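Changelog-linked ticket: phosphoric acid mono(formamide)ester example.
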Amino acid sequence: MELKHFIDTQDFSKQELLDLIELIRMIKKADKQGATPRLLEGASLAMLFEEPSTRTRISFEVGMAELGGHALYLKPGEIHLGVRESLGDTAQVISRYVDVIMARTLKHETMEGLAKYATVPLINGLTDYNHPTQVVCDVLTMIEHAPAGKKLEDFNVTFVGDATNVLSSLMLICTRLGMNFTHAAPKKYQAPKQWMDWAHENCKVSGGTVRVTDDPIEAVKNADFIYTDLWWWVGQEAEIPERQAAFMPRYQVNKDLMSHAPAHCKFMHCLPASRGVEATDEVMDSAQSVIFDQAENRLHTEKGLLVWLVYPRLHRPSSELKAVHKGQIENFLESKF
Ligand code: CP
């Protein structure tokens, strides 16, 4: 069976991504009826973290348990991850113990190093370049909150703020699926050329559009969804005054900016948020906000992803075969002890 990792949505076609989202929707529907199928009975997930997490850590662990499997949380510093042991050795060893690995790494190169050597599926739970599980969840959330009469290819998505790993992933998945994507940010914080080039390539195939502007008011004029993310992250503390000056108040998602968007426009944020910085409480807690639906959808997304990657690879022995092995082991034990 071909080994499939989930490192970047760019590795998958539009149809494959839509199939994945359809699977997630089926699993969510089952969950809402209290009937989640235990499709990963007996399977194990190793969760490697180089950074703290709330949503990713909890949703993967709970998701795996609900599917009948088991998850191990390996917190930052707990295992050799390129320290005292090569990344390749670590990836190959872990692959001998578990059925799937999810990793959050500081550097995307670390994720690629793990992918090169892992012999079980590897899921990217965020790097400095991208956050693919988050944006699959975000597209699901957009579909659930689609404006009346609009299909996915007609969605207008505007990201206001820094060119973060979430921005790169959101821009790439939206353009791959044929949506219209706008990034509004001060020039210094706009998406780098390489990301824009990939997004333009996606649009050529999908029929979507992508553009970048420094005018947030114009950018939200036709938006069905306004999305923002943190203006600074761990390690960027020294840049806070400069970033604050560049973004505030023009790029803050507040009631005034929302008033320039259509009334049906929804507000999205991957969380964690710095309330009162990139978005105000008034917006985050408004009727237009879908941030907690988004957060919930991480759980359904992780379950869908795990099933998609792991279920086809699991051995599902017959009860007869299980009985044969059980009998042989019991006979051996009786003969010896
Ligand atoms: N959105 C997200 O990945 O959240 P965590 O950092 O809490 O996992």
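Closing comment: Example verified and attached. Residues 28 and 300 are 6 Å apart (CA to CA). The chain is about 45% helix and 10% strand.
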